[in-house]
Amino acid sequence: MANSPPALIAISISTVVMPSSLSKTRKQIAKKRSGEVNALHEKSRDSLRLHKAGVRDLRLQKLAEARSKKEQPIVDRVAYFQERLQEKDGKAVDVATAQDFVKGFISQYDEEYDSLKKARRPGRPGSAREDLLKMKIAALRTEFKNGFVIPDIIKDDNVKLLAEWEGSWARLTSLPWIKISSAGNVRQADFPNKGIN
């Protein structure tokens, strides 16, 4: 390892952290060439294998980022309601309290939106962040009017399941979900796997 070129050292360290097809391919080629990966011909088979593995890693990374971007609002929503329940000693709440929790979730963006609005000079258009927050708040209010998707925090058994949730995506599917509207209507809902605001 001490005689290895710097590129191999960096790859082998990243292999420990998270193995990728590029590092595996690089390792296979290094083994075949007795440690020499730097002296490859531009159009050689090994060079093409390395390029293909690198492109695959980039594609998988982009897919993971897109999936994470879609899943993050759901995780944030569940974490918010889990915290609110911990403040209430981990007990089930009634519909009115659940509605208050939803209103608090929607209003969490109000302060940032107001500060951006005040910072803007009169007559100037809103910043991109301000427009994004405005759309997000409007979408959340519309969702609340029609039925806001939350984990079931009204029944004791479901509250226990939510309290045991440790933040993983896999356990979210086992949580029971409900839709609660601003009018006070509550109905069962499916897991929001298509994403939410």
UniProtKB/TrEMBL annotation:
CC annotations in GO: nucleus
Organism superkingdom: Eukaryota
Pfam families: Tma16 (PF11176)
InterPro entries: Tma16 (IPR021346), Tma16_sf (IPR038356)
The family this protein is said to belong to: Belongs to the TMA16 family.
Protein name: Translation machinery-associated protein
Gene giving rise to this polypeptide: TMA16
